[in-house]
Each structure stands twice: as structure tokens, then as C-alpha cells.
Amino acid sequence: ERQLRGHADWLRCASFSPSSRRIVTTSGDSTCKIWDTNGECLLTFSGHDGWTRIAEFSADDETVATASKDNTCKLWSSKTGDCKLTLSGHGSWVRACSFSPLTSLVSD
Known about the structure:
- By secondary structure, the chain is mainly β.
- The chain is 0% helix and 46% strand.
- The protein contains no helices and ten strands.
- It has a four-stranded antiparallel beta sheet with strand order 1-2-3-4, with no helix packed on it.
- Strand 3 (31-36) and strand 4 form a beta hairpin.
- The chain is globular.
- It starts with 10 loop residues before the first strand and ends with a strand.
């Protein structure tokens, strides 16, 4: 049994990378974390001002998209944790986001 410990609030989502070597989690603590499959935290993404609802890896494993209660979707480098882009302008929580399976296009 393996557990992912490190968030300060309960988990909202957990998703595997396309390679199945990493897992991204979202939490009520407004962060996202990338873990290896042994349960070691590799990166923490901080930058949302509300619960993070969902996170997904891009097909090329290079980018993570996150959706949040702060009415934004963010794109992050899955290697460095740097925020690449913030998609704002939503009138309410962003409850979902996903990448096209064939490209790095994102919808929110």
C-alpha cells in the first residue's frame, strides 16, 4: 500500500501521466503536486487562489493543466513547476479541463 502524503487539505483529483510514471494531484489547499509512483513528491505548483479541482497531463507529458475555484485554468511545466499560462475570464469556478489527445491544445 502506498499513500501520497503532503497536501494540507483533502484531495480533489489524482491523474496518471501518459507514461504512468508520475501522478498529479489537486487539493483543497490550492496546490497541485506531482509524485512519482513510489509516493515521493517531485514538484508543488502554487499559484491558484482557490481549491484546485482537476489536473491533467498533456499527451507529450510536458505540461499540466489545472482548473480551480479561483475561476482560472493554468498551464504548468511538468518538469520545472513554472506557470506557463493563466486562462482567466471565466464567470465562476473552472470545474474541468482537458488536453486534446493528439496535440497540446487545452480546453476548459
